[in-house]
Amino acid sequence: MSLTSATTSAPDASTRRAPKQRRSWAWLGVVPFFAFLVIFLIAPALSVFQKALFDSDGNFGVDALKNAFTGQNRAAFVFSVKLSALSAFVGVVVGGLLAYTASTLRRPRWLRTFISSFSGVAANLGGVPLAFAFLALLGRQGLLTRIINDGLGVDIYRSGFALDSTAGFVFVYSYFNIPLMVLITLPAVDGLKDSWREACANLGGTSWTFWRRVGLPVLTPALLGGFLLLFANSFSAFATAAALTTKSTLVPLRIGFYLGGDFSSTGEQQLGYSLAAWMMIIMVVNMGIYYVLRRRSERWQQ
Amino acid sequence: MSASAAGRRRLSNVIVPIATVLVCAVYFVLPLIAMTRFSFQSIPVINLRWSNLTSRWSFDPVVEPFRDEQLRSAMYLSIKLAVATVFATMALLIPTTVWVNLRLPRMRSIIEFLTVLPYVIPPIALVAGIRVVQPHARWFLNSHYSLVPFYVVLALPFTYRALDAGMRALDLKTLVDASRSLGAGWGTTLRRAIIPNLRTSIVSASFLTATVVLGEYTIASVLLKPTLTQELVVFQQSNGQQGTAMSLLLLVATTLLLGVLTIVTRKRGGASVTPV
C-alpha cells in the first residue's frame, strides 16, 4: 500500500510542479552546451567568414572570395573537386557492391558481421598512419611498386604514377571511403525486399528488369547520398593528404599552407580564410542535400 | 533462352560477390602487410629476394622510438589529451543529454543538428577560425591543453549519438523519479542511478573520443602542438622505418579500440561509428 502510494504520488508531484518549471527555467539546463559550441565551434567558424568578407581595414568586399578562384588556388579547387568526385564514385561503386554482397550473401554467416565490423573500424582509419601504410605499399620504394615492376615489367613511377596524383589519392582515400559507403548503404540495401524480386519475376521480369525498374530506383537516393557524403569526406580530408605529399595542391592543403605561413605583410592570409569559407559553403550545401536524400531513402527501410 | 539466362544469372550471382570480397580483401590487407614488412624487416625493397624474405626481421624499430625523448613526450601528451577530452566530453554531454531527454525532448532535433555541425565544419576550417581568434586568446591557446575543447567538438558527432542512444534505451524518467523520491539529489542521481546504467554508452563514447584524439593531426599541426601524430610526421622524415613502426602501433591501437567498440555495441544495437 505504501509502495503504490509512493510510486503514484511522486510522478504526480513532479507533473504538478513541472509546467511552471518547463515554461521558465528548463532551457537553462542546455545553456552550458550551447555556450560551449558557440565558443569553440560556431564563433571560430563565423570569424573565418568575417575575415574572408572584410579586409584588414574593415571594408566589406567579396574580392577575397573571388580571388580564391585564381591562380594556384583555382588549380587546387579543380584538383580537389576532380579527386573528390572520382574517389566518391569509386567508393560508391565498390562500397555499394560490398554492401550488397554483405546483405545478400547467406553462406558464410560470419562474413556479413565481419564486413560491417571491419567497415566500422576502417571508415575511421584515415590520417597519418594510413598515409604511411600506403607509402610503404606504393611509394617509390614500395612493396607493390616492386611487385608490379617484377611481375609486369612496368615501372609505375616512370609511367606517371605518384601517390599525390589523382590516381594515387583516389587509391588511398578509398581505404576509408569504401567502408563508410558500406556503413551508410547497408540499411538501404537491407531494405530491398525479396518479395519485390519475386513479384518482378512473377510478372515476367528478368534480373536486369528488376534492377532497372525496382532495385536501382529504390536505391538511387541512398547511392546519391553516399556519393555526396564521400565527396565531402574526401574534399575535407587534410591529415592523410598532408602526410602523403609536401606540395599544396589540394584545397585543404592550401588552407594549411596559408595558415602556417606569415602573410600578414602581403595580405595573402585573407586568401586562406576565403578558401576555408568556401570549403564550409561546399560542405553545408553537400550535407544539406545529403540529409534530404537520406530521408527519402529511409522511406523504404521498414 | 530462359535456361541460359538463368544460368548466366546464377553465375553472376556467385562471381560478382566473390570477386568483390576478394578484391576488397586484397586491397585492405596489402597496405598493412607492406607497412608491417617495412617496419620490421630491415631490408630495402630493392634488395628483397625470395631467399632473404625471412631474414633480418626484428621488433627493435617499434621499441627504439620509445627512447626518443621528443616522441615519448608527444605520446604522453596525446594520451593525456585523450583522457582529458574523455572527461570533458562526459562532463558536458551527460548532464545535457539527461536534461534534454527528461525535460526538453522537443529540443532534441536542434541538439542533434548542432552535434553534426563539426562534420560540416571540418578540422581544417575550424583551425582557420582558431587562427583568427588566436591573437586575442594567446593566454588560452598557448597551453597544449587548449586543444581539449576543440577535440571535444571534433568527437561530438560520435559521442553525442552514443550517449543519446544509451539514454533512450533507459526508462530515464522512472529512474530519476525513483532515485529522487528515495531522497537523492541530482548529483547522487547522476552518479549512482544514471551513469551505472549508461556504462556501455560511456565506454563506447570514450573509445571513440580516444581514437579521434590519438589520430588528430590537422589542428595540432597548424597550431604547432607537439602531439603524437604531429611529432610522428617530423620523426618519419629522418627515420622512416621507426616512424612507420610507430604509426603501425597507433593503427593497431586504434583498430583495437574501434574493434572492441563495434563488438560491444553490436549486442546493444546502434553502433555510431559513422560521423553522420
SSE layout and pairing:
The complex is a heterodimer of chains A (about 300) and B (about 280).
Chain A: H1 2-24, H2 31-53, H3 63-67, H4 71-104, H5 109-122, H6 128-138, H7 143-152, H8 166-190, H9 194-202, H10 207-235, H11 239-244, H12 251-260, H13 269-298
Chain B: H1 2-40, H2 60-63, H3 69-103, H4 108-120, H5 123-133, H6 138-141, H7 147-169, H8 172-181, H9 186-197, H10 199-215, H11 218-222, H12 228-238, H13 240-268
Helix pairs in contact in B: 1-13, 3-7, 3-10, 3-12, 4-7, 7-10, 8-9, 10-13, 12-13
Total beta strands of chain A: 0
Q: From the alpha-carbon coordinates, what is the Rg of chain B to the nearest angstrom?
A: 24 Å
Main sheet characteristics of chain A: none
Q: Helix count of chain B, per DSSP?
A: 13
Helix content of chain A: over 70%
Could you say which structural class the secondary elements and strand pairing of chain A correspond to? Answer: mainly alpha
Query: Helix count of chain A?
Result: 13
> Structural class, from secondary structure content of chain B?
mainly alpha
Q: Globular, elongated, flat, extended or rod-shaped: what is the shape of chain A? A: globular
**What's the overall geometry of chain B?**
globular
Q: Are there runs of chain B of 5+ residues with pLDDT below 50, and where?
A: none
How many extended strands of chain B? 0
Largest interface: A-B, 93 and 90 residues
Order of helices and strands of chain B: HHHHHHHHHHHHH
Mean pLDDT of chain A: 86
Protein described:
The complex is a heterodimer of chains A (302) and B (276). With 302 residues, chain A is an all-alpha fold. Helix content of chain A is 76%, strand content 0%. Chain A has 13 helices and no strands. The longest helix of chain A is centred in the first third of the chain and has 34 residues, at 71-104. Chain B is mostly helical. Chain B is 77% helix and 0% strand. The model of chain B has no long low-confidence stretch (mean pLDDT 88). At the A-B interface, helix 1, helix 2, helix 4, helix 5 and helix 6 of A face helix 1, helix 3, helix 4, helix 5 and helix 7 of B.
